[in-house]
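The following block was generated as part of the benchmark described in Methods. Ligand: zinc ion.
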Amino acid sequence: MGTGLILGIETSCDETAAAVVERGRRTVSSVVASQIATHARYGGVVPELASREHLRAIVPVVRATIEQAGVGFKDLDAVAVTAGPGLAGALLVGITYAKALAYANRLPLIAVNHLEGHIHAVLLRERGEHDARPIEEPALALVVSGGHTHLYLAQPRDGLWSYALIGRTVDDAAGEAYDKVAKLLGLGYPGGPWIDALAQFGDASAVPFSFSQVKAKAHLRGKTPRTKGAETSPIGDLDSHFLFSFSGIKTAVLRHVDVHGLREEAERRADRLYPALANGEASVTDAAAKPAQTKDQALGLCTQGTLDLIASFQHAVVGDLMKKTFGAAEQLGASRILVTGGVAANRELRERFGDEAGKRGLEISFPTKALSTDNAAMIAAAAWPRFEANEFAPADLSGDPALKLA
Ligand code: KG4
Ligand code: ZN
């Protein structure tokens, strides 16, 4: 065995990312090229644009991470790549390039599930911090991002992790709700960081949003869930107490905006934050059209009523995530919880999950903020146990947009 260095490549959605990680526990380098500027004007990811941007970015991003790591390809032990779930064309760019790199440098190729990657963003941090005592207990993992809201029971067996699906969303992912509500309120894309920053200025008890119990059966009768990761897992066999639904709160926010006359304010805000784009005078490739505005400027454009709405929305979403996650931990007897994915970067979420875990005497871990959203260090970290177990990808590996974890 060599140096224990794995090059990870991640292109499943709208970030082109590459990283070098040592033995699944130390990030040597990590580079993320975001396509936010490209997709912002559309208020969401446009698949065709994503593939094109990945094609442009993949070579410089991999080169940059190798340079920053101060290594050569010959120093690597393996190349790891996200095989799914994600956008078909976007996955294809990363997989094709990873295959070529592995072949040219005679390195083994390791396929990683994106959701397992998010879980290993936490394990990477833990393995780094508890070098002498790698935590080997089962954990309840909440993966909460723009494409996914999934609860898994993660279990280590002989160094390899296996996963059982415990719960999931039947419609939108939590991050998707953040993004849609932010768009509705004339804020930037992606919406999570904007709502996170503005929520602290509002009264979270102003608007009493509530989540009703999700009825699993209704979603089984010929209805296909609509999220990006929707087909990645069945709903039928799950305990309905652990099902999430975030499309209702989006509609409730919309209704609140209309009833309280907040729509004009939202439109004015969008015009001020994205003047060139709103007027149709600029294209996304113009530097002038990029949203350079800051959250402070957005704050100045929000009435107290809007800030209260934002705070109430976030409070309700975090509350619902907590209720189901801690409920599942209790039912399954899990003594530790991992929370990961883009929404896990949220300040209120970290604080309230941390407090609740403390009260219940449970261990709780998050990734570093930088590794909460999509990155490649988590892919290289997830590949390490597979490398040790000689679990390599077949030469004809292809992307699977609906790849299942459990
Ligand atoms: O993990 P990620 O980068 O991509 C997916 O796998 O989907 O997650 C992106 C999502 C977006 O919906 C974004 O709005 C949300 O994570 N997000 C946040 C925060 N930062 C990113 N949501 C709430 N608070 C944040 N601070
Ligand atoms: Zn992700």
